[in-house]
Amino acid sequence: MTMALVSIRNLTKTYQRGPEKVEVLHGVNLDIAEGDFVALMGPSGSGKTTLLNLIGGLDTPSGGEIAVNGERIDNMGGGQLSGWRSRNVGYVFQFYNLMPALTAQKNVELPLLLTKLSGAQRKRNAEIALTLVGLADRTKHKPNELSGGQQQRVAIARAIVSDPTLLICDEPTGDLDRQSAEDILGLLQTLNREHGKTIVMVTHDPKAAEYASHTLHLDKGTLVGEHAQAA
């Protein structure tokens, strides 16, 4: 039996908005298996990005438990959580968040600056990651010399260069045309199926969700359904 890589119990998240408290997540319970590819869907304001950020350690819950690979992260302090993120999570966002003055290779190397790897090792690892995403011939290109789809591939290479336990994707195709979006989704699917990456992806696009193994639906802060894709 495949172990749960992510285990969530009675998760709540409340924000203070002016004089009132708004509960965005209400007692969410969820297990995500190692090697799974999960799409999170739901209407605007349903809590899907909040849940994604909690799983990825970008935010902390108001209540409940989150364990990733058997390690509780819900009660970590800021510094401890930052270290945990750098070791365990790769992030892919809708807007690629690349440094415009840096080449593709140097952008991909950025997470490795926090490690003890030598400059030569960082360069080598970045080249391997860029080859994996199909950009072996674009290592010296800067973001403005790349298409949107290629920039997102660089962002994915940056997310996987540290070989993270978990890949967190927030609307990764939201800024792309349909063909580029399908290319990126196919790449994520390959990383999942052939390289064993566990992926959690927020999307509003049903076609994007079809690339995942499972689709979870959130509505008003509660999980309301799950759909498993055919292999």
UniProtKB/TrEMBL annotation:
<dbReference type="InterPro" id="IPR003593">
    <property type="entry name" value="AAA+_ATPase"/>
</dbReference>
<dbReference type="InterPro" id="IPR003439">
    <property type="entry name" value="ABC_transporter-like_ATP-bd"/>
</dbReference>
<dbReference type="GO" id="GO:0005886">
    <property type="term" value="C:plasma membrane"/>
</dbReference>
<dbReference type="InterPro" id="IPR017911">
    <property type="entry name" value="MacB-like_ATP-bd"/>
</dbReference>
<dbReference type="GO" id="GO:0022857">
    <property type="term" value="F:transmembrane transporter activity"/>
</dbReference>
<dbReference type="InterPro" id="IPR027417">
    <property type="entry name" value="P-loop_NTPase"/>
</dbReference>
<dbReference type="InterPro" id="IPR017871">
    <property type="entry name" value="ABC_transporter-like_CS"/>
</dbReference>
<dbReference type="InterPro" id="IPR015854">
    <property type="entry name" value="ABC_transpr_LolD-like"/>
</dbReference>
<keyword id="KW-0547">Nucleotide-binding</keyword>
<dbReference type="Pfam" id="PF00005">
    <property type="entry name" value="ABC_tran"/>
</dbReference>
<keyword id="KW-0067">ATP-binding</keyword>
<comment type="similarity">
    <text>Belongs to the ABC transporter superfamily. Macrolide exporter (TC 3.A.1.122) family.</text>
</comment>
<keyword id="KW-0813">Transport</keyword>
<feature type="domain" description="ABC transporter">
    <location>
        <begin position="6"/>
        <end position="230"/>
    </location>
</feature>
<dbReference type="GO" id="GO:0005524">
    <property type="term" value="F:ATP binding"/>
</dbReference>
<dbReference type="GO" id="GO:0016887">
    <property type="term" value="F:ATP hydrolysis activity"/>
</dbReference>
<dbReference type="GO" id="GO:1902495">
    <property type="term" value="C:transmembrane transporter complex"/>
</dbReference>
<protein>
    <submittedName>
        <fullName>ABC transporter ATP-binding protein</fullName>
    </submittedName>
</protein>
